[in-house]
Write a structure and sequence with these properties.
By secondary structure, the chain is α+β, with helices and mostly antiparallel strands. The protein contains 7 helices and 4 strands, in the order H-H-H-H-E-H-H-E-E-E-H. Bound molecules: FE2/S2 (inorganic) cluster.
C-alpha cells in the first residue's frame, strides 16, 4: 500500500488540524494525494486514506466516484472537463466539446499520446448561470468560447515545448 512521505504526512496532519475529525478533511486529503501523483489517485491510495482517516474503504471510494474532480486513471497535464448538462448544452456546451474534440483529436475519456491533454465530458459544474463552462485542472472558465480555448491550448503547448 502506498503511503505519505514525511513531508506530505506533515502537510496532511496540518490539514487535519483544521477539522474536528480527520474524516472531515477527506476532500483536501484526496486533492493532496492527486497533486503528489500527477493529477490522479493510483491504486492503493484509497485504502491508505481510509486507514489514515479511520474510515471505511467503501466510504472513501464513494467520495472518489461521486466527484468529477477525482481521477482513478492517469490524466493529461491539462485535464479539460466540459459540462454538457442542459443549461450548458443550451448555451453552446455541445459545440465547445465538439470544438475541443477536433482541436485536440481526442474523444471524451482520452488522453493525448504526449500526456499533455485529456478530455472529459462532465455533469454540472455548479455555475449554470455562467454557462457554458469548462474546467481545466482546478480552474473554471465561464462563458467559454472557441477562441479562449484555442489560446489555452496554444499556451499549454508553448509552455511544454
Ligand atoms: S449545467 Fe453546466 S454548470 Fe451547471
Amino acid at each position: 500500500m502506498p503511503e505519505f512521505n514525511a513531508k506530505t504526512l506533515k502537510e496532511a496532519d496540518a490539514l487535519c488540524e483544521r477539522y474536528a475529525e480527520k474524516l472531515h478533511a477527506l476532500l483536501p486529503l484526496l486533492h493532496l494525494v492527486q497533486r503528489e501523483n500527477g493529477g490522479w489517485l493510483p491504486p492503493g491510495w484509497d485504502a491508505y486514506i481510509a486507514e489514515y482517516c479511520e474510515t471505511t474503504l467503501n466510504h472513501v471510494r464513494g467520495v472518489i466516484t461521486f466527484y468529477n474532480m477525482y481521477h482513478t486513471e492517469p490524466v493529461g497535464k491539462y485535464h479539460l472537463m466540459v459540462c454538457t448538462c442542459v443549461p450548458c448544452g443550451l448555451c453552446g456546451g455541445d459545440g465547445v466539446l465538439e470544438h475541443l474534440e477536433q482541436r485536440l483529436g481526442l474523444r471524451p475519456g482520452q488522453t493525448s499520446p504526449d500526456g499533455l491533454f485529456s478530455l472529459e465530458e462532465v455533469q454540472c459544474l455548479a455555475a449554470c448561470d455562467k454557462a457554458p463552462l469548462v474546467q481545466v485542472n482546478e480552474e473554471v472558465y465561464e462563458r467559454v468560447g472557441p477562441d479562449q480555448l484555442d489560446k489555452l491550448i496554444d499556451d499549454a503547448r508553448k509552455k511544454s515545448a
